[in-house]
Amino acid sequence: MIKKLCIIVPYRDRKEHLDKFLPAMEKHLDGQKLDWSIVIVEQTFDKPFNRAKLLNVGYAYTKGKCDYYCMHDVDMLPVEGKADYSYCPQPTHLASMASQFGYKLPYEGYFGGVTMFDKESFEKINGYANEYWGWGAEDDDVLRRCATMKVSPARKKCVFESLEHGRNIIEDEYKKNLDKLGKNGEFDGKVFTEGLTNLTWDVIEEERIFKNTIKVKVNI
């Protein structure tokens, strides 16, 4: 039986990228003959962007409907024949060769951009941490969660073209994220207490926008 894949895309104010992303993903995933759907999780503008929490929301929103999940930035387009989205029974990093980093890892522990999770592993690590507001560190945190919970990650050699965009990095928010990354306070010795189990959100709007694709606007 073919396992069902859900692509979860954290999103805000990137329509130009989304208009390129959706047809590219349809062509690529259909070409691999996968059973797939896409959920665009759009955040409102009242708080700093929170990529990690949006990914948790996407998982919770689709829970029970899919077998595995791909956490996917909207500015990463798979290169035809060079990005494999087939099922892996462990957390698996796909964006190992992206154009924005010269088709190599920006650093050895990089686990961002495009990352797949089987549902069992994602539940075991309690998803992403919810309190990384603004840019940075949430992917390093999820890799640390895997190590702490003895969930072995993997990496595929996949090629992506990165769409150009500016970065608005607020230094105070970034420093708070780095400080949070250096602490194990949310781990109680058995499980991570922050993540899927204390996730809250409100759905504001739902809209089917493309083949197999729903956009969900949320307040987090």
Notable characteristics:
220 residues, alpha/beta, eight-stranded mixed β-sheet, three-stranded mixed β-sheet, globular
Can you characterise this structure?
The structure is a single chain. The protein has 220 residues and is an alpha/beta fold. The protein has five helices and eleven strands, in the order βαβαβββββααββαββ. It has helices at 15-31, 51-62, 119-124, 138-148, 171-181; strands at 4-11, 35-43, 68-72, 76-78, 92-93, 97-98, 114-118, 154-155, 159-162, 202-210, 213-219. The chain has an eight-stranded mixed sheet, with helices on both faces. A hairpin with a 2-residue loop joins β10 and β11. It is globular, with a radius of gyration of 16 Å. The mean pLDDT is 93.
Quick structural gist:
The protein is built from five helices and eleven strands. With 220 residues, it is α/β, with parallel strands linked by helices.
Tally of alpha and pi helices: 5
Structural class: alpha/beta
Please give the radius of gyration in angstroms.
16 Å
Estimate what percentage of residues fall within beta strands.
25-35%
Q: Could you report the average pLDDT, rounded to the nearest whole number?
A: 93
Oligomer: single chain
What is the CA-CA span between the terminal residues? 36 Å
The major β-sheet equals: 8 strands, mixed
Portion in helices: 25-40%
- Give me the strand/helix succession: EHEHEEEEEHHEEHEE
Strand order of the largest sheet: 8-5-7-3-1-2-11-10
Low-confidence stretches: none
Described by the principal axes of the CA atoms, the overall outline is globular
Give a count of the beta strands, DSSP E runs of length 2 or more: 11
